[in-house]
Amino acid sequence: MKLTVIPNSIDHIEKYKKIGAKAFIFGLKGFSSGYICTGTIDQIIELTNRNPDIEIFIAMNKNIFNSELPELENTLKKLEKTKIKGVLFYDLAILNLKIKNNLSLDLVWNQTHMVTNYNSCNYYYEKGVKYGVLSGEITLEEIKEIKKKTAMQLFVTVMGYPIMSFSRRTLLNNYFLANHKKKDKDTYIIKNNNEDYIIEEEDNGDAIYYGKILNGSIVLKEMDVEYVILNEFGIEEELFAKTLSLYQKIIDEKKEHAIEEADHLLGTYRGFFFQKTIYKVKKND
Fold first, then answer.
1. How does pLDDT run across 146-172, given as a tens digit for each residue?
2. Of 97, 103, 111, 106, whose CA–CA distance to 125 is shortest?
3. Which superfamily does 2-161+214-266 belong to?
4. How many angstroms separate the CA atoms of 218 and 250, rounded?
5. Packing angle, helices 41-50 and 69-80, rounded to 10
6. Rounded distance, CA 170 to CA 167, Å?
7. pLDDT at 283 over 80
């Protein structure tokens, strides 16, 4: 099991490597959504050359427009020649272009709320997709079942603010324009029914996060997946580094008080690890 970090800055790599991070995920400029730390292809190449001891994955997880397909195809061909470990994708154009051009580039199925069962994982694995990022809305038992019944290598997010949705619309900008107010930052906290939600605006749209930090310290030793993701978004560097260290201790089974310490630092919000997602349709009153 490899600790995989989505960092807020490239400057944090060395620090987190020393603590135990074995893999990192970065956005690719122009092709990623919901990533603070992004780079151009040239910057990614430089990054991989400087860090041969870690696995670097690139997120290309935005919806692709038809007009962007030629650039996307050229970008994938360039990435194939780099030392990156794989590409996280949302839009199926990426998979189709990999097949069309017979690219050796490894892909990571990352369709957010859709990666929920082993049959789908097996389908994409047969199409040549090596990895998958499991949905944050499935339980620990479901994760275990998927792991037993697929050859796909799996990622599970175990720490960070959970992403709820992403909109291609610039919701913040639209709100402030409609209300004749000035938008002076790109991140806001909104409240609804006494719950906090974080909305982050970027060039490709707006990401909305739940306002509690997911802390999966208690499930680390129970799921035999290849990668666990810790997302630094919205979290102070010192707190993130302490959490990363505690998670490494839990994985190494030096966990006398590590789980309790992580709970003290982050709280005990476990997301859906122990709670099934239930969909209800309201009756018309």
1. 999 999 999 999 999 999 888 888 888
2. 106
3. Aldolase class I (3.20.20.70)
4. 9
5. 20
6. 7
7. no
